[in-house]
Each structure stands twice: as C-alpha cells, then as structure tokens.
Amino acid sequence: MRQSSTLIPTLREVPADAEVKSHQLLLRAGYMRQNSSGIYSFLPLGKRVLQKVEQIVREEMDRAGSVELLMPALQQSELWQESGRWYSYGPELMRMKDRHQREFALGATHEEVITSLLRDEVKSYKRLPLNLYQIQTKFRDEKRPRFGLLRGREFIMKDAYSFHASQESLDEVYDKMYDAYSRIFARCGLNFRAVIADSGAMGGKDTHEFMVLSEIGEDTIAYSDTSSYAANIEMAPVVATYEKENATAHSLEKVETPNQRTIEEVAGFFNVNEAKCIKSLLFKVDDRYVLVLVRGDHEVNDIKVKNYLEASVVELASPEETKEVMNCTVGSLGPIDLAENIEVIADHGVEAVVNGICGANEEGYHYKGVNPERDFKAQYVDLRFVKEGDPSPDGQGVIKFAKGIEVGHVFKLGTRYSEAMNATYLDENGRTQPMTMGCYGIGVSRTLAAIAEQYNDENGLVWPTAVAPYHVHLIPVNMKNEEQKEVAEQLYNELLDSRYEVLLDDRQERPGVKFADSDLIGVPVRVTIGKRASEGIVEVKVRATGEQLEVAVSDLPQTINQLLTTK
C-alpha cells in the first residue's frame, strides 16, 4: 500500500482525554478515531490489525472444531424474557422499540439467540455435540467508558456456544476451547494468565478468564509465587488458619463512642489492632437482608456472599435501608441482640476473635469484650477477599497480586439457558433432556488494545509480526531523487511478489517526519532507501530492538525473511 493513497492521520500531541498508552498511541498513530464516548472508527491500519487478530481466532477456533456463523445484533425482548435476563441483566443492555412499539435489545451477548436457534433445529442426541461461533459487534451501555478500546460501548467480540448431550462432552469441549484460547493469545504475543473466575450475569459454573498482565488492568489476579495457580481475586478461596488468643474472656460492656464510625477510628479509640474489631455490613440479598461479618482488617467479598447464599442479586444496603432495618447508622452496626429475621453469616476469621469490638446497633455506642458464640450466633464460611501473603489455595507458596486486562472468558453454562428456554433433545432412550451448554468469548478489539498496551516504547507502537498491519515499511528518503524512487519501486514490487505486506511511504515529506511516523506506527521492519541507493545498498532497522544493518538490495528479501521469522 502506498502511504499517499491511504488514511493514516498521525498526531504529534497526546490527546487530552487518552489516559493509557494503548489509547494514546492508537489515536496518535492513526489506527482509530473516537466518534463519541466509548465508540470508535477503525481506520485502515486499525482494521488490518483487527483482521490479523480475527484470522488467528478463526484458525484456532476451526482447529478446535467450532464452526462460524453470524447471528443478528438486533434481538427480540421475548427471548431475553424467556431466559429471565431482560430485567436482571441491568442498564448495560441497550434497549429500544421499533415503530410498532415492539421491544428489542442490541446484542450484548447471544446466549438467548443461539439457544432459540438450536432448540428449533436440533431434536436428537445424534446431532450433538455442536460448537458454533461468530465474530460480531456487541453493544453495552457502559456507565463510564474509559481506556479507549478496553472499556467501550461498542466493541468487536468472538462468541462461541457449544451444545451437548452430557456433562462429559461439555468437559471435553471446554478443555479444547481452553487450549485454543491459550494458543490464540500466545500467537498474539501476549503475556497472559488463565485464572479461575466468577460467571456473573452469564450464569453457570466452572469458568476461567484469560488475563493480559498490565498495570492498568481493572481486575486483580491472585496467583501463587511458586505454582501455576491463578484466580480472579473475587474467586480465590482463603485457606488461612486462625489461632485463638489464649486469654480469659472479658465480660461484654457497652461503651459510648461519639463520632467513631470507621474501623480505623474505632480501633484507635479502643487502642487495639484492627484485627480485634468485627466489621458488620448489611446486605440486601434478593428479597431479604443479611448481616455479614468480617475481621476489621479484612474486606467482605460480595461474590462469595452471593455464591454462598445462592442469590441472584447481592448489594450493600443503602444508609436509608440500614436505618430502617437496623434502627441505626452503618458505623454502629453489630451482630448482638438482633431481630430474629436478620440472618448473620461471618468469615472464619471472626470466629477466632477474643475480646473483640463491634457496633452496638445504637448510634454512638460499641461493645467491647465481644466473644463470638457466647455473644452472638453466626454461620461461618469463607467470605473475605484473599490478601497478599495468604497461603496459596493449592498448598504451594503464598499469594501475590497482579493487575490484568480480561481478553477472554470460557464458561460451563450447564442447563441454565436450555431449561429456561426449553431447548431439549431426545436421548438414545427416546426421553426428552435439556441440552448442556458451554459459552466462550474473546474481546477481539480489546485484544488489539491489550497488545498495544504491552508492545510499545517511548517512540510509539511495536507490533509483533503476527498482528502487525504490515511486515515492512519502505521509506525512500527523498522521493524527488530518481535513483531512490526507482529502488523503492523495485523493492516494493519484489516484496509484494514475495507475499510480504508492504507500506511504501511515497509522501513528499521531510525524512524526520517519515521516520517519526514509522516509529509511531510500529511496523516490524523498516527499510530506508537513502544516499547509498545508487550503490544498491539500503538500511534495515528492526523496530523491536533498534538493530540496524546495511543490506544489498539483492539480499533484502532473504534478510527480511530471517528477521520476521526470528522476531
């Protein structure tokens, strides 16, 4: 491609609203432009990288036995009502009405559509398993779009769905998809980890997220410092043991604590470690209220609360709800002398507290000398977030934290959708059974941004060869110099004939501008045709390493082949 014939609008200044490197560089290097908050146009360079990522995805999905199709982005509300997600999915689902006042949604995901399709087309176990995927634009009304392509309202996604007659069949395909995802992200050159995750609004059990390691990631990964164990911090179980202090139990005493509301304030008031305090939080769990207790130096993990209580919705009670239910403010909550209709669950760490501190359910008062079991009853389960330094759940090493960008997610959905939507088949005995399902997603446009986040330097993007928009950037220093122009045209055609993807900078620009743009764009190999063109010599520079060498024109294809196959 001749650079004068394409659209690569580079910028010298960093856009004011671009917070992270990938967002800044994809805008500056002319890969994309923002249309509105969270919505972008992919310009020619960006489109080429997207196509490279999509091709890798297609090759590995096909290899794993999945077959491509395309479903509508506009989805009937009736399908979402069948699954029960029309109201539970939340405000991220973009809803609309047509001229006949029929309700639709712009597809955030396609479980409902694919399930309705398969229930109409597959009636026998003989047609199972089936694994189908698509690459399509998705829509989610993010409350706060940010970080460019990493959290947008319109994005490109690969979503796959598998249907089975048995759990064993699902397990087998799940493992194949897990391996396919590992190959996809490895081929994209990413430093990633597969972590145990929560299925969230998707439903189902047994799920892994594929996380690209990055300091700007919005997810925290808890991993072992000596093994391969890794989990989203929401899902990492705590296996720490707690030793009770060998001390005589004090009597319970109510103490006036004016203006002492936070754990830090209360611990300071009583001159004790925060671990001596019992933190009490009121949660609204579906249609009831539950008081959740953790040690003062720990944090409640609402995902664990939700999973333990097998709830659909778990959210912290508002100050108004807390006042109405508990007759006190949040800073004075405690588990002693509660109404019988308030369920109490507590983290294991609370059980080991001796002579602790907790709220008295009366504004401006706390109890001291609190001893669980004597002073209150609770169900004890793992309810807190894991902390760095905790033992790894697999028994090997201790937990460390890292930040990650989620680029892929694989789920075992089970019969969550097939039962709700009556997607059944006849088994070998002629009995009606619900299909067992799996679901597998990759954020294609997010993967592009994640690559840009990991592959850049102070001068611009540094694309891995597998996803680079072009293999070679040809730069004649002076297009008015006939010898340089002739050599550039010769090499351009020879490299194209050799099946290389070439960007020829044929613009009438100063050399400094061309070189700065080339570094910014980040093509793996740059070939400069300069003053030695008359001698049949060109300069080759490797973008990733900065390595430079002079090469005879006749040897250039071989040199480029060596460079591209070793980078």
Describe the protein.
The protein is α+β, with helices and mostly antiparallel strands and 567 residues long. It folds into 3 domains: 42-236 and 400-452, 2-Layer Sandwich (BirA Bifunctional Protein, domain 2), CATH 3.30.930; 253-381, Alpha-Beta Complex (YbaK protein); 470-566, Anticodon-binding domain (Rossmann fold), CATH 3.40.50. It contains 15 helices and 31 strands. The strands form 8 sheets. Strands 3, 7, 8, 9, 10, 11, 12, 21 and 24 form a 9-stranded mixed sheet that branches. β29 (525-529) and β30 form a beta hairpin. The two termini are 23 Å apart. 41% of the residues are buried. It is an enzyme of class 6 (ligase). Homodimer. Its main location: cytoplasm. Its EC number is 6.1.1.15.
Mean pLDDT: 94
Computed CA radius of gyration, to the nearest angstrom: 29 Å
Number of strands: 31
**Dominant shape:** globular
Assign the structural class, choosing from mainly alpha, mainly beta, alpha/beta, alpha+beta, or little secondary structure.
alpha+beta
How far is it from the N-terminal to the C-terminal residue, by CA? Answer: 23 Å
Low-confidence stretches: none
Please report which band the strand proportion falls in: under 5%, 5-15%, 15-25%, 25-35%, 35-45% or over 45%: 25-35%
Number of domains: 3
Helix content percent band: 25-40%
CATH class of the largest domain: Alpha Beta
Major pleated sheet: 9 strands, mixed
Query: What is the CATH architecture annotation of the largest domain?
Result: 2-Layer Sandwich
Number of helices: 15
The CATH homologous superfamily of the largest domain: Bira Bifunctional Protein, Domain 2
Family: Belongs to the class-II aminoacyl-tRNA synthetase family. ProS type 1 subfamily.
GO molecular function: proline-tRNA ligase activity
Subcellular location: Cytoplasm
Catalytic activity: tRNA(Pro) + L-proline + ATP = L-prolyl-tRNA(Pro) + AMP + diphosphate
